[in-house]
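Hi Y.,

Following your request, here is the sequence exactly as I used it, all 166 residues.
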Amino acid sequence: MALNMIDALTGINNRRSLEAHLKQEVDRHKRYNHPLSLIMFDIDHFKAINDTYGHQCGDYILQKIAEIITGSIRSEDILARYGGEEFCCLLPETPMEAAKVLAERFRTKIADHGFEFGSSRIRVTISLGISAMTVKALTPDLLLKKADDGLYMAKNRGRNRIEVAD
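Below is the corresponding structure, written out as tokens. Let me know if you'd prefer a different format.
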């Protein structure tokens, strides 16, 4: 994959790469009507982690989360750093119910992981929003917006949770 498609810090896909894959997968969904879901998540209170432990620690947390989630997905799934502390995972051939199960696996793996940086052990949680291709979300932008809306709901309802926007 071209270097301009990889996030330099985490080694996973970047936003540009995600957008290209998203367009391909939405086109495939429209052609074959195969299920397609998207999980968007970000790190809860990430600014506080950077402010308390420093940006090197923040970078370490981003790298470890990318590593943990990469180890939790199939080779055909596309994990990308969307920006800052926000990630997206595109799930071809995956209906909403299976995406919910996977999102819960992401949530618990991160919450249960002891992030150790220097002499500090840091508890990290993530909030997640999920969307799936439906008659209400038939474009890449709408699929992203629905997942983002779910993420926003998860943040507003207390964090460290999963939400699906209608």
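Helices lie at 15-32, 46-53, 55-70, 96-112, 140-156.

Thanks again,
Q.
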